[in-house]
Amino acid sequence: MEKRVMTDSRRRKGLIAASAMMSGVLVLSACSSDAGDKGGDSSDSSKKSQAQVDEAAAKETSKAKIAILPKNGATNASINNAAKVTVAEGTLTQVTMTSEGGKAVKGTLAEGGKSWAPDAQLERSTTYKIAVTAKDAKGLTAHENASFTTVAPGNSFIGNFTPEDGSTVGVGMPVSINFNKAIADRKAVQAGITVSSTSGQEVVGHWFNSQRIDFRPDQYWQEGSTVTLKLALDGVEGAPGVVGVQQKTVTFKIGRNQVSTVDVKTKTMTVTQDGKTVREIPISAGAPTTPTYNGQMVISEKFKETRMDGATVGFTDADGKGEYDITDVPHAMRLSTSGTFIHGNYWGADGVFGNSNTSHGCIGLNDKQGADDPKQPGAWFYDGSIIGDVVIVKNSKDKTIKPDNGLNGWNMNWADWKAGSAA
């Protein structure tokens, strides 16, 4: 009896335990099943909710895509073409560009509001900021900001050129460009320079040194023609790490053909225009000990009055002072860098002109002090001459002037001139 009770008791306990275990399995299974079902419902619901949020966000975001150049943080940017703002799928509504200190940079919208660019060349070595706003077709706005720094003077070069834009010059005027830094890649730089004439004359550049290149045709420019100089040097690497910044077009006109020939032996100058003699003028050229250069020289500067001090060109006395110092030389026109001029002379006797060569190398014409008498030969010649006119000197005992001493490349033959081209 006792044994049976214990057996029954154990059996009940076993059934209870088994039931509990089964219940546990069912509970766990049920929880797993419920969680799975609920998880599935929750995930779907969450996905739907997120999709709705994304869809709503997409509907609220402007489709306008703004692009700013140069890229944010760029350095050594061009001062000509680098800055530009464009927009796709929208229209620019506001572009603000400022330099250091907040100074506004003027610009213009183009292409119906699809692009913007500055109106003028930027400054070198300057940081600029650009803030842009655009709208899409639905009127939703988009914003973009960027800043960049332009190329520094130390990393760029420029060319100072003559003649000036819009000027009228004589038939001997070359295009002369002097760079502020030595050019290592002459071929690349010359490829960025174009000089052409309406006359159809072939124009070739000649490098005198690493910083100077002149352009001219074989013969003098044709009178009445127009010459165009195009500088496309922006971004051109002239030397390692040094790029050009110029992008410019210059035009000038060739006037009448005036060539004046100075005969040192006969002490006369014959002035011709378009091949016809218009006047013969008595002159006084360089003395035997200080003769005038021979050769073709081009008038490069004009001064109604100027000072001439011998000390500046190496003519000094025992005390180191200039052998001459005339503060009011009338009607002076430069023919060479080294100091050769053709000018009025009021200190010499009237009988000197046409009879004696007495100067330190300049060509003198009779004139009056004050440069106010238009009837004097010096005044007449000055008033009728323009930059670029040719003065030829012959029969002097001195050598021919060097082609790079002034704008005097005509003293080099065409074959040698072309040999100095890097094109």
From TrEMBL:
Chain intervals with Basic and acidic residues compositional bias: 35-47
Pathway assigned in UniProt: Cell wall biogenesis; peptidoglycan biosynthesis
Catalytic site: H343, C362
Organism: Streptomyces albipurpureus
Pfam families: Big_10 (PF17964), YkuD (PF03734)
Keywords in alphabetical order: Acyltransferase, Cell shape, Cell wall biogenesis/degradation, Peptidoglycan synthesis, Transferase
Domain called L,D-TPase catalytic: residue spans: 258-394
Highest taxon of source: Bacteria
Record bears the keyword GTP-binding: no
UniProt protein name: Ig-like domain-containing protein
Bilayer-spanning residue ranges: none
Keyword Signal recorded: no
Region of interest called Disordered, as start-end residue ranges on this chain: 33-62
